[in-house]
Amino acid sequence: MRWLGVLGLVTIVACGGEDHLVSVAEQPGPQQLVIPPMDAGAPMVVEAPVDAGPVAIEPDPGESTTPPIDEVTARDVRAVSTSIRSQAVVVTELQGLEQILTTIPTTDPKHAVLLHRTADEYAELAHVTTTPAVVTSSRKKEVAHLTTLINNFPSFARLDEARYYRGLAYERLGDLKNARSSYYDLIKHHPTSKLIPFAYFAFGELFFADARSDPSKWDLAKQAFMEVLKYPPPANGIFPFALLRVGQVADAHGDSAKAQSNFDRLRRDFPTSAAVKQIPTGR
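Above: the chain's sequence. Below: its structure in token form.
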């Protein structure tokens, strides 16, 4: 079972009555990759947010229709991540989808398909606007629709996508506890999903961010990014960014030679990747 492998042996240990997934590194040491890194006894339950209310239909005069392609959009392989449609167009389409949802029984498989599509549309709305209130309400509605889909349609064919993008939406909302839980559920329940390396990359990003204030997290970030590199391109689209991060972690550890090796490989093997543009100046 692939989800049980994170740089070697993985064991399930009881912690306060709850199961937590713990990676046992090949060499003993203080750093162990915990997925998800949650408080002892905390239930791994993903909560649906409070309804964010109606989304404004007025287009934002300052909205950008050509968003930059960076590691954030690289982590979202849906077409919505590069959408150039206007806010007004997306909102109008969403209103139609929400209306259709009210006419289809909640047990009908068509309802599941519409929930998935509507969640994607909310993700697109959050992408094409720069209005903070619209971004937040859209992300919350995306999570709410995906949570309903996951809870009510456990046999839905694209449930791995629902779990991954719910985690990404939670992460973008700043709800890291629920983000970790959703990524964990993807790894646990969909070990063959094409999104598995994206989930490991997400854990790496969370550790990477923590490491800026807690250097002990650098090793955890490296382990997560190295797990991403076990899934080769082109199927693994996040591979170049994992190379970038491994190089940056090496820099943080003072290993300039290893960092340069990863940056050179990134330039050589993925010259057109947006990750190349983020290689530190002078490297």
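Residues 191 and 217 are 25 Å apart (CA to CA).
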